[in-house]
């Protein structure tokens, strides 16, 4: 009986020690940085407190770019250190994690070129004989390399980079979304 009591006492002491010590560790740990969406960063200076905090805890700098691997985005700053472009990486593109925040213009990570054109389109005059939906074709399209194509929507301040070199491949998936300010 005495041996059982000693054994139980040791287990209780260990449990108590673990609880107290674990609580102190939890209190000493710094809180995780608050996630900041691209829209809260665009157009702001890197010296802005929220932007500086986000960059310090998520990004590494390379020239005018801040690569924020855990957040799934990259930021480009101009000569005045103002964030002008945000590259939102979809599905671990470019070696960065997937951007988890809200995408612009109602886009989703699974959208194809056809989906994007539909979402960025609009109604044709409902009183016309050809009433219907007009696809949102880009203002410019080009193929910068052998693996991607770009659809530039100047009117929205967005460029969609697709995972296909064909600017007419309606099944191409979104690789990256570039948002400008």
What layout of secondary structure does this protein have?
Layout: H1 2-28, H2 49-58, E1 60-62, E2 65-68, E3 73-77, E4 83-89, H3 113-119, E5 122-124, E6 132-134, E7 140-142, E8 149-153, E9 158-162, E10 174-180
Antiparallel strand pairs: 1-2, 2-3, 3-4, 4-10, 5-6, 7-8, 8-9, 9-10
Structure description:
The chain is globular. It has an eight-stranded antiparallel beta sheet, covered by helices on one side. Strands 5-6 form a two-stranded antiparallel ribbon. A hairpin with a 2-residue loop joins strand 1 (60-62) and strand 2 (65-68). The protein has helices at residues 2-28, 49-58, 113-119, and strands spanning 60-62, 65-68, 73-77, 83-89, 122-124, 132-134, 140-142, 149-153, 158-162, 174-180. With 181 residues, the chain is an alpha+beta fold.
The total tally of domains equals 2
Report strand %.
Answer: 15-25%
Q: Strand count, sense and closure of the main sheet?
A: 8 strands, antiparallel
The gross shape turns out to be globular
How are helices and strands ordered from N to C? HHEEEEHEEEEEE
Radius of gyration: 25 Å
Q: Got a strand count?
A: 10
Give unreliable regions as ranges.
1-34
Q: What proportion of the residues is helical, as a percent range?
A: 10-25%
The helix/strand class is alpha+beta
The strands making up the biggest β-sheet line up spatially as 1-2-3-4-10-9-8-7
First-last Cα distance: 75 Å
Compute the average pLDDT. 80
């Amino acid at each position: 009986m005495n041996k059982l009591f000693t054994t139980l006492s040791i287990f209780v002491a260990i449990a108590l020690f673990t609880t107290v010590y674990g609580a102190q560790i939890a209190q000493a740990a710094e809180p995780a940085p608050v996630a900041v969406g691209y829209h809260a960063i665009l157009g702001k200076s890197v010296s802005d407190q929220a932007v500086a905090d986000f960059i310090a805890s998520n990004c590494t700098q390379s020239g005018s770019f801040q690569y924020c691997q855990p957040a799934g985005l990259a930021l480009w700053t101009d000569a005045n250190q103002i964030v002008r472009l945000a590259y939102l990486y979809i599905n671990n593109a470019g070696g960065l994690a997937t951007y988890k925040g809200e995408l612009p213009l109602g886009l989703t990570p699974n959208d194809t070129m056809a989906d994007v054109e539909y979402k960025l389109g609009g109604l044709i005059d409902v009183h016309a004989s050809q009433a219907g939906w007009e696809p949102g074709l880009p203002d410019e399209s080009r193929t910068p390399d052998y693996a991607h194509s770009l659809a530039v929507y100047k009117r929205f301040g967005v460029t969609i980079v697709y995972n296909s070199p064909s600017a007419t491949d309606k099944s191409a998936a979104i690789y990256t979304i570039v948002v400008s300010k």
